[in-house]
Amino acid sequence: MSAEIRRAVGLLAPDGVVEVRALADGATHSGYFDDQEALARAVEALDADPAVAGIYATLNAANPALLARRANRIKMRLSRKDATTADTDILRRRWLPVDIDPVRPSGVSSTDAEHDAALDAAGRIAAYLSEQGFGEPVRADSGNGAHLLYRVDLPNDEAATEVVKGVLTTLDALFSNDLITVDTANYNAARIWKLYGTLSRKGDSTPERPHRRAKVLSIPPEMETVPRERLQHLAGLLPRDEPAPRRRGGSIDLASWLAEHGIAVRSTRPWQGGTLYVLAECPFSGAHRDGAFAIQFANGAVFAGCHHASCGGGAQRWPELRAMYEKKPTRKQEEKPTPPPAPAEDEYRERALTILRDGDPLTFLLDTFNKEHVGDRTVAECLVMSIASQSVENTNGLHVSISGNSGKGKSHACTTMLQQVPEEYRLAGTVSDKALYYNENIRPGTVFLFDDVSLSDDLQEVLKAATANFRTGIQHQTVTPDRKLQVCRIPERCVWWLAKVEDAGDDQVANRMLTVWIDDSAEQDERVLQHMKEREAREDGGDGEDPDLPVCRAVWRVLKEERLHVSIPYARRVHFAATTNRRNPGILFDLIKASALLHRFQREEYDGGIRANRDDFAAAARIYAAINGEAGGQETKMTKNEAAALATVATMGWEQFTIKMLQEALGLSYHQTYRILHGYSSRGTIYSGLLEKCPAVSFFDTMVTEDVEGYAVRRREHLFSFNRTVYQHWAHGGGVWLDEAGDRDRDDGPGPCNSRCPPDRSGSTASCNIAAGLPQDSSTGCNEQTAGSGAGSASTCTDRETHLSLSTKVQQNAHTVPGTGSGAGECAGACETRNAGNDLAISLTRGGNPNPGQINHPLRNSICYNVLKVDAKGGAMLQEPLPGVLDHRTFERVKTELGRCDVCKTGKAVYRSREAQANICDQCYARLVREWNGREGVR
Question: Are residues 609 and 629 in the same domain?
Answer without folding.
Answer: yes
